[in-house]
Amino acid sequence: MKMEQKLNTGFGTHFVQSLLLPFLVGLITYGLNLVRGYFTLGLLLEPVSHVSDIVGPTGVVYAVEFSHRSGRDLVNMAKKRTNVIPIIEDARHPSKYRMLVGMVDVIFSDVAQPDQARIPALNASYFLKAEGHFVISIKANCIDSTQPAVAVFDSEVNKLKQDQFRPAEQVTLEPYERDHACVVGGYRVSKKSKPAS
Ligand SMILES: C[S@@+](CC[C@H](N)C(=O)[O-])C[C@H]1O[C@@H](n2cnc3c(N)ncnc32)[C@H](O)[C@@H]1O
């Protein structure tokens, strides 16, 4: 999907900007209609509820969030949505919650932190299946507001590559979010697998 393409989804702008666009890119790129385990880092209620609908009753969404306030909302949501497992922890320390999480097909991360490439890489090393997929949001001004956003995106994508992520597509979230990009791709992709076009 090219970023110029317009989405007319009927969902609110918040959902479109935060999750739907990158998720659709992921779906279109990989045909992820059989996702069972979905691991989200730093997503709030609305996106998690949509992912919960997408994976359905046979899927699981592990949602890690360190803010206690948002965490309380997640816990309340999980009482109604039994496929959501809320984890109120700092995503920089996956060893603290590894006993709660199975291997997953997809990691989505939108933590907006200076180490926003390292956090999903660390979690992927614990929980993401080989040949699984990632959707990672990069917020340039959390990393270096003095550099052009494009330079920051390039540098973060290079870090992801060093951690066994193979980016396949990158879109900006303009006009919904400034200086914000989303990268999707594969994890520990074997040399034989062709990158998605
Ligand atoms: C930019 S917001 C994500 C918003 C998301 N796109 C949405 O619409 O719901 C970043 C979220 O990540 C959480 N977060 C940031 N650093 C985190 C960390 N180290 N561990 C867990 N959650 C974190 C924040 O509390 C916040 O809720």
Automatic annotation (TrEMBL):
GO terms for cellular component: box C/D methylation guide snoRNP complex; small-subunit processome. The chain crosses the membrane at residues 15-35. It comes from the Eukaryota. One of its GO terms (biological process) is box C/D sno(s)RNA 3'-end processing. Signal peptide: none annotated. Keywords: Membrane, Methyltransferase, RNA-binding, rRNA processing, Transferase, Transmembrane, Transmembrane helix. PROSITE patterns: FIBRILLARIN. InterPro entries: Fibrillarin, Fibrillarin_CS, SAM-dependent_MTases_sf. It holds the Pfam family Fibrillarin. GO terms for molecular function: histone H2AQ104 methyltransferase activity; RNA binding; rRNA methyltransferase activity. NCBIfam families: PRK04266.1-2 (NF003276). Belongs to the methyltransferase superfamily. Fibrillarin family. This is Fibrillarin.
